[in-house]
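task queued by scheduler; priority normal; single chain, no ligands, no partner chains; default sampling; output format set to structure tokens
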Amino acid sequence: MKKIKQYKKLLDIGTYESCGIDDEKLSRYYSFQFCLKYLSPIKIPEILELGTCRSFVDGKYEGCNMDDIRYWKRDNFEKWDWGAGCFSLVFGQEIPDANLTSVDIAVSHINRCKAMTDSLGIKCNHVMSDSIKFLELTEKKFNLIYLDTGDMTPIESTATIQLLEAKILVERNLLIQNGILLIDDVLNKTPRQMGDNSGLGKSKYSIPFLLSNGFSVVFKGYQYILKKDMK
């Protein structure tokens, strides 16, 4: 886990800014580490990202969510969009032999992500699709599914989409045995600021559903990690 160590400070800061709680233990650095350790013995892990890396720079910089490639600076990773986590950029570098698939409904997001992963030499299958349709049609099973679809406001529509994603992956058994779910933005501050009191943000429906369908939480931070209980 060489690459992620150099990103620790930036993952910490990005998490604090998104969470509104300055607690190192909540950082994406630790949830990412958990997942990387789990994946490390697997020769060619299957990884699915729902909601792709979509910005060349973090929201505090000029060029956020813009298509202009000049804003992407591969070697100036302090400007990367750490507020969103940079999942495929980190995991694609850490596990170069993984079968990494990134799905997003917006062609502009897919094009930006492809520009970033290509520049870093990351092998990634970029799919422009509605996440629900992709989950309904895919013939693959995955070691890790990363749930990061939708915006933080309005929260109700995003939470509903994530619940549908959870239902499909359970009904279709899309996780390989012992596979894990990584759910982003569970403790994001925006839903709280907009009056949502669930404490789970865009996961307020999906996490209770998963817990009632054989899953347990194995990591709690800004992100949650869930694993299906063995029978």
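post-processing summary
- The CA atoms of residues 58 and 81 lie 4 Å apart.
- The radius of gyration is 16 Å.
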